[in-house]
Design brief:
Strand content: 35-45%
Oligomer: single chain
Radius of gyration: 16 Å
CATH superfamily: Hotdog Thioesterase
Distance between the termini: 26 Å
CATH topology: Thiol Ester Dehydrase, Chain A
Order of helices and strands: HHEEHEEEEH
Structural class: alpha+beta
Helix content: 25-40%
Strand order of the largest sheet: 1-2-4-5-6-3
Shape: globular
Number of helices: 4
CATH architecture: Roll
């Protein structure tokens, strides 16, 4: 049987069309931690032929969202920031590792490192979440496949 963390992230991914568009691959997940991988595509680059900063930000934000919700309660972002350290190009494979650094009942802080596959650091992201009182419902009947919308069908 899948862990509660995996069931939560499965439920989030089912409705997360943007993360699907990014082509995110889940590598590792546990409470307060998530590791993702993706490959940069030409349509993700700007006029300088480097990855648009919003792509790296969104990738880190997805890892942050999965890690912060992985402990069972709904968590919503209240503050984020990113520092872009090195440029990225079409074909680069990047890995985001999100980890809780400080946890409380209502407020938690996470760091996300984005690296090239060779370990070269390309961005640092910091996020703060507010933990709601709402628990994730991971009962199998609540996690049935959602009906694919027109947008999701185009992405698959």
């Amino acid at each position: 049987m899948k862990s509660k963390t995996t069931r939560i992230i499965d439920a989030m991914m089912k409705k997360d069309l943007f993360s699907k568009w990014l082509g995110i691959e889940r590598l590792e997940e546990r409470e307060g931690y998530c590791r993702l991988r993706m490959v940069l595509r030409p349509e993700m680059c700007n006029g300088f032929e480097i990855a648009h900063g919003g792509i790296t930000y969104s990738f880190a934000d997805s890892a942050f969202a999965f890690a912060s919700n992985s402990m069972g309660r709904h968590a919503v972002s209240i503050e984020t920031s990113i520092s872009h350290i090195k440029p990225l190009h079409t074909g680069d494979t990047i890995i985001a590792t999100a980890e809780q650094k400080s946890g409380g009942n209502k407020i938690s802080i996470f760091d996300v490192q984005v690296e090239k596959e060779n370990g070269e650091l390309v961005a640092l992201f910091k996020g703060t979440v507010f933990r709601k009182d709402t628990e994730w419902d991971t009962r199998p009947e609540k996690l049935k496949q959602i009906k694919k919308s027109g947008a999701e069908k185009r992405l698959l």
